[in-house]
Amino acid sequence: MRVLGRRVLVRRVPIAESSHGIIIPERSRTWPQEGTVVAVGSGVDSVKPGDRVLFGRYAGTHVTMDEAVHVLLWERDLMGVLNDD
After folding, report:
1. N or C: lower Cβ tally within 10 Å for the chain?
2. What's 27's DSSP letter?
3. Over pLDDT 70: what percentage of the chain?
4. Are strands 34-40 and 7-12 parallel, antiparallel or unpaired?
């Protein structure tokens, strides 16, 4: 996928499974607001592919590709870049 403009394609972190044996239905689980940048548009300066980022809970458009959930966001919807320190 080629991202256009000031948009960013982010692969969401998968939903963690419960370690306590409690089964939570898929529709009731909360998605993490974190992901890894997969691609950026030509106007994006603040992030690059491979960066881990935070974004708003309801931001972007969800897209399923390669059996993984991605979010297509405007650059302004990103809240920050996580450091690997």
Report:
1. C
2. G
3. 76
4. antiparallel
